[in-house]
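I'll show a typical protein example:
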Amino acid sequence: MARESGEVPDDPAGRIVVVLDLEGVTDKAGLMDRCARDLSLPEWFGRNWDALADCLADPALWPDGSAERGLLVVVRGWREYAGRRPEEWQVAEEIFAEATDRGPGLFVTLGS
Protein backbone atom coordinates (compact mmCIF):
# COMPACT_ATOMS: atom_id res chain seq x y z
CA MET A 1 0.00 0.00 0.00
CA ALA A 2 2.80 2.36 -0.74
CA ARG A 3 1.54 4.15 -3.82
CA GLU A 4 -0.08 7.53 -3.37
CA SER A 5 -2.29 9.40 -5.80
CA GLY A 6 -2.28 13.18 -5.82
CA GLU A 7 -1.10 15.34 -2.96
CA VAL A 8 -0.86 13.38 0.27
CA PRO A 9 -2.23 15.17 3.33
CA ASP A 10 -0.27 15.33 6.56
CA ASP A 11 -1.57 13.41 9.53
CA PRO A 12 -1.20 15.19 12.87
CA ALA A 13 -1.22 11.80 14.62
CA GLY A 14 1.89 10.74 12.69
CA ARG A 15 0.27 7.87 10.80
CA ILE A 16 1.44 6.87 7.33
CA VAL A 17 -1.03 8.35 4.82
CA VAL A 18 -2.12 6.65 1.59
CA VAL A 19 -4.63 8.20 -0.81
CA LEU A 20 -7.20 6.01 -2.55
CA ASP A 21 -8.34 8.15 -5.50
CA LEU A 22 -11.70 7.00 -6.89
CA GLU A 23 -12.13 9.82 -9.40
CA GLY A 24 -13.62 8.35 -12.58
CA VAL A 25 -14.57 5.04 -10.95
CA THR A 26 -18.08 4.00 -12.00
CA ASP A 27 -18.39 0.34 -10.99
CA LYS A 28 -17.10 -2.35 -8.65
CA ALA A 29 -14.47 -3.57 -11.11
CA GLY A 30 -13.09 -0.05 -11.35
CA LEU A 31 -13.10 0.28 -7.58
CA MET A 32 -11.20 -2.98 -7.17
CA ASP A 33 -8.67 -1.99 -9.84
CA ARG A 34 -8.12 1.37 -8.16
CA CYS A 35 -7.72 -0.26 -4.75
CA ALA A 36 -5.16 -2.66 -6.21
CA ARG A 37 -3.24 0.23 -7.77
CA ASP A 38 -3.42 2.94 -5.11
CA LEU A 39 -3.06 0.61 -2.13
CA SER A 40 -0.36 -1.50 -3.84
CA LEU A 41 -2.23 -4.69 -3.07
CA PRO A 42 -0.47 -7.99 -3.83
CA GLU A 43 -0.82 -9.82 -7.13
CA TRP A 44 -3.03 -12.44 -5.45
CA PHE A 45 -5.64 -9.80 -4.47
CA GLY A 46 -8.90 -11.39 -5.64
CA ARG A 47 -10.71 -8.15 -6.54
CA ASN A 48 -13.74 -8.99 -4.41
CA TRP A 49 -15.17 -7.59 -1.18
CA ASP A 50 -13.75 -10.31 1.10
CA ALA A 51 -10.28 -10.01 -0.40
CA LEU A 52 -10.37 -6.22 -0.01
CA ALA A 53 -11.36 -6.52 3.65
CA ASP A 54 -8.61 -9.08 4.28
CA CYS A 55 -5.93 -6.97 2.58
CA LEU A 56 -6.92 -3.78 4.39
CA ALA A 57 -6.90 -5.49 7.78
CA ASP A 58 -3.48 -7.14 7.32
CA PRO A 59 -0.68 -4.90 8.66
CA ALA A 60 1.86 -7.08 6.83
CA LEU A 61 0.54 -5.55 3.58
CA TRP A 62 0.77 -1.94 4.74
CA PRO A 63 3.66 0.41 3.87
CA ASP A 64 6.84 0.13 5.93
CA GLY A 65 6.40 1.63 9.38
CA SER A 66 2.61 1.60 9.26
CA ALA A 67 2.19 -1.29 11.68
CA GLU A 68 4.01 0.77 14.31
CA ARG A 69 2.77 4.27 13.42
CA GLY A 70 -0.67 3.44 12.06
CA LEU A 71 -2.13 3.79 8.58
CA LEU A 72 -4.57 6.44 7.40
CA VAL A 73 -6.29 5.74 4.07
CA VAL A 74 -7.87 8.88 2.63
CA VAL A 75 -10.55 8.07 0.05
CA ARG A 76 -10.91 10.87 -2.51
CA GLY A 77 -13.21 11.31 -5.49
CA TRP A 78 -15.77 8.85 -4.11
CA ARG A 79 -18.98 10.87 -4.60
CA GLU A 80 -19.52 10.05 -8.29
CA TYR A 81 -19.14 6.33 -7.66
CA ALA A 82 -21.42 6.54 -4.60
CA GLY A 83 -24.05 8.32 -6.69
CA ARG A 84 -23.89 5.90 -9.62
CA ARG A 85 -23.69 2.71 -7.56
CA PRO A 86 -25.17 3.42 -4.12
CA GLU A 87 -25.58 -0.25 -3.22
CA GLU A 88 -21.96 -1.02 -4.10
CA TRP A 89 -20.76 2.09 -2.27
CA GLN A 90 -22.65 1.01 0.84
CA VAL A 91 -20.80 -2.31 0.73
CA ALA A 92 -17.49 -0.50 0.22
CA GLU A 93 -18.17 1.69 3.26
CA GLU A 94 -18.99 -1.43 5.30
CA ILE A 95 -15.73 -3.03 4.14
CA PHE A 96 -13.77 0.07 5.17
CA ALA A 97 -15.47 0.09 8.58
CA GLU A 98 -14.96 -3.65 9.10
CA ALA A 99 -11.30 -3.37 8.14
CA THR A 100 -10.72 -0.56 10.62
CA ASP A 101 -12.31 -2.70 13.33
CA ARG A 102 -10.15 -5.70 12.40
CA GLY A 103 -6.90 -3.89 11.65
CA PRO A 104 -5.45 -2.21 14.72
CA GLY A 105 -3.99 1.12 13.69
CA LEU A 106 -5.96 1.37 10.44
CA PHE A 107 -8.15 4.39 9.82
CA VAL A 108 -10.14 5.10 6.65
CA THR A 109 -11.59 8.55 6.07
CA LEU A 110 -13.56 10.10 3.23
CA GLY A 111 -11.95 13.14 1.66
CA SER A 112 -13.30 15.47 -0.97
Q: What stands out?
A: The chain has five helices and three strands. Confidence is low (pLDDT under 50) at residues 2-6.
